[in-house]
Design goal:
The protein is an alpha+beta fold. It is 46% helix and 16% strand. The longest helix is centred in the N-terminal third of the chain and has 39 residues. The radius of gyration is 32 Å and the shape is elongated.
Length: 408
């Protein structure tokens, strides 16, 4: 449970870092490659979040040191306190928030689609709605359709209609409905993130600016006509979370300003692609490598216990196969070190019987991993007067985060 919350917190921190970095780089990317390059730079967000889930190569676990074990008297095992309830409460709060955000988005999308009324096909492959809740728009995910309002022909000239439809077809070719679906998913998962609402608005604005650029850049002479078509649009209805709306009144000034300030891009298209890919890979690599905790590698050692003075012919139990335990991921991610003292019972055949915790620091963090490893160990049994007998061993184990693995 704590591991899941820690992963969510780590992803939230990196999401904030990515959003801030993209906001800082936006003027540079806009000058180098225009609105399309800025929009593609948002690929850094999903790439970085996916990189956080890639497995890290684990550092080599050092073999446990030989244990000179002595039989010890029975000591009552330390009672591990029950896990606190707050991780479950936090997870429940997160789940309720995610479900609430998902339900609100689904209702908004359904309300928009119902408000369009009856759809009828048009000769150009688009669809015409009987009502206008905020059209034209590209609606749908698996098979997105361009839907125009009932007064589409009356409101726009044939040339303006063609530019608007080119704009929506560009959304469809570049998979923008899927990008909006990913955004809706992120808003559900990170509903608590203070920067995500701003990032979502900025992403949708960059999406529209990029689509505007793709539509009018091949035809510079049509910029004034495109701007006039934008000025005719007034979007006063609620928008659908996963629809690509051609009208966008809140950013009308920004879209028209981009049309007026068209400049030649400083970078060719392919160079811009390489730049964005390098940015995504670089940030993803840094986030992925950060999971290891500043390059520190874990080490686990079992320390020798004090030997007792044995009578002639008596032999204490000796280690035969003592594989190291697995460093708990939650402790590894947080750079936690600790120590566990186990009481291991060894029967007359050398097999491990009952394993209990005598002490642990921090309490409960390394107990499960230590017990699981101890149950796999094998020993040479203790002997008394030449006869194999059962015994109990006291074995301290140390978990440390070291820059370099200790040598044998």
């Amino acid at each position: 449970m704590a591991e899941s919350l820690n992963a969510l917190l780590q992803a939230s921190v990196w999401l904030a870092i990515t959003v801030v970095l993209l906001a800082a780089l936006r003027p540079l990317l806009l000058a180098l490659g225009g609105a399309a390059l800025v929009y593609r730079s948002w690929w850094c967000v999903p790439v970085l979040l996916l990189a956080l889930h890639l497995p890290l190569p684990m550092g080599p676990m050092v073999d446990a040191l030989p244990v000179l074990a002595a039989a010890v008297a029975w000591t009552a095992p330390v009672v591990v306190p029950a896990a606190p309830a707050w991780p479950w409460l936090l997870l429940l709060a997160w789940a309720l928030g995610a479900l609430g955000m998902g339900g609100a988005s689904w209702r908004a999308q359904r309300r928009f689609e119902r408000a369009m009324g009856t759809l009828r096909p048009r000769a150009d492959g688009t669809w015409q709605a009987s009502a206008d809740p905020g059209l034209p728009a590209l609606v749908g995910l698996w098979a997105p359709r361009i839907v125009v309002g009932p007064a589409f022909e009356a409101d726009f000239s044939p040339a303006e209609q063609d530019l608007i439809l080119q704009h929506e077809r560009s959304h469809r070719r570049h998979g923008d409905p899927w990008a909006n679906a990913v955004l809706a998913l992120l808003r559900c998962v990170f509903w608590f993130h203070p920067l995500l609402p701003w990032a979502a608005r900025r992403f949708l604005r960059d999406q529209e600016l990029a689509c505007d650029a793709r539509t009018v850049d091949p035809h510079p002479a049509l910029r004034r006509l495109y701007a006039n078509a934008l000025l005719k649009a007034q979007l006063v209805h609620p928008v659908a979370p996963m629809a690509c709306h051609w009208r966008s009144q809140p950013m009308l000034k920004e879209r028209i300003a981009m049309l007026k300030e068209h400049k030649r891009k400083a970078l060719p298209w392919m160079t811009g692609q390489v730049l964005v890919m390098g940015l995504c890979v670089g940030m993803g690599t840094v986030a992925w490598a950060s999971q290891g905790g500043a390059g520190a590698g874990p080490s686990i050692t079992a320390e020798p216990a004090a030997a007792t003075k044995a009578a002639k012919g008596d032999v204490d139990a000796q280690t035969r196969d003592m594989g190291p335990p697995t460093y708990p991921k939650a402790a590894l991610d947080q750079g936690i070190s600790g120590k566990v003292v186990l009481r291991v019972e060894v029967d007359a055949t050398g097999a491990v019987g009952d394993v209990s915790v005598l002490s642990s620091t921090p309490a409960g963090v390394f107990d499960e991993a230590s017990i699981a490893a101890a149950k796999r160990w094998t020993f040479e049994p203790a002997r008394r007067n030449g006869t194999a007998v059962a015994s109990a061993l006291k074995i301290p184990m140390t978990y440390e985060m070291n820059e370099k693995a200790p040598t044998q």
